[in-house]
Amino acid sequence: MNEFNQLRTLWRTADTGALPDSHAMLRLVRTFRTQKLRKKWLVTGLAALFSALIIVVPCLVHFHLPGTYRTVVFCWALIAYRIQ
Q1: What is the pLDDT of residue 32?
Q2: Whole-prediction pTM value?
Q3: What are the tens digits of pLDDT across the range 11-42?
Q4: C-alpha to C-alpha distances, 79 to 52, 58, 61, 72, nearest whole angstrom
Q5: 3-class DSSP assignment, residue 76
């Protein structure tokens, strides 16, 4: 019990004057959540854009090297595997 009493007195004597008030904390949490959500939407949107480019470009452009088609098919297969 002696350790518990020591911890309790330490807890009660801690200086909390430098801590922000509840409104400031809510504002900080809100901005943090907004930033995280914005980053998630940005990553999702860019992934969709690049996936669409990988699908559309080989349909519209004629490549001269047969290895390019193999690379594109490999990318499509990799995307299809990641979706499953």
Answers
A1: 96
A2: 0.54
A3: 888 888 888 889 999 999 999 999 999 999 99
A4: 11, 15, 20, 11
A5: helix
- The 8-class DSSP code of residue 17 comes to T
| Cα 65 to Cα 32: distance, rounded to the nearest angstrom | 48
C-alpha to C-alpha distance for 82 and 50, rounded to whole angstroms: 14
Distance CA 62, CA 52 (A): 17
The alpha helices in 2-65, defined as continuous H runs, are 2-13, 22-60
- Mean of the per-residue pLDDT values for the chain? 84
- How far is the CA of 72 from the CAs of 20, 54, 65, in angstroms? 54, 7, 12
